[in-house]
Amino acid sequence: MGKRVMQLLMEAYDLCEDGNFDEALKIYDKALNEEPENIQALIDKAVTLQTMQRYKSALKVYQSALKIDSKNTDLLVNLGSLLHTMKKYDEAISYYDKAIRIDKKSAMALAYKGLSLGEMGKLQDAILYFKKALAIDKDYDLPNISAEIAKDLLKSIKKESKKQ
Fold this sequence. Notes:
single chain; mainly alpha; Serine Threonine Protein Phosphatase 5, Tetratricopeptide repeat; 2 domains; 81% helix
């Protein structure tokens, strides 16, 4: 990655941090004009579009990034996250699984897979994936919080089934 593109990505990141997403997109486009196959710029642009709830546009950017580097775990996890947001849980899980096959210690991919499994009502499996993520990164809040929620849901489901 060239120095100019790196500066542009930092500028776009700062704009996103300040909530100036439209301006950030313009900067990402400048970076991509200089380096059209820059995976980080593509991922960051897609994440920004996703944050703006422009899901179809984000999906197109992720798909073009996949053509360049289909083994980038950040790309796979972020694409899975988008699909999860779009309630396409099976598709999301398939991308998390690809990321996990590449990096078995991706706590984020494991935790996000747990979230999608939880949304599908597979709470026992969700808890298993949250535990796997925590085994890798004990300080990772997402699986810790999500595991507690899943356990609470399981308890309430069991109580309801006993009442019937």
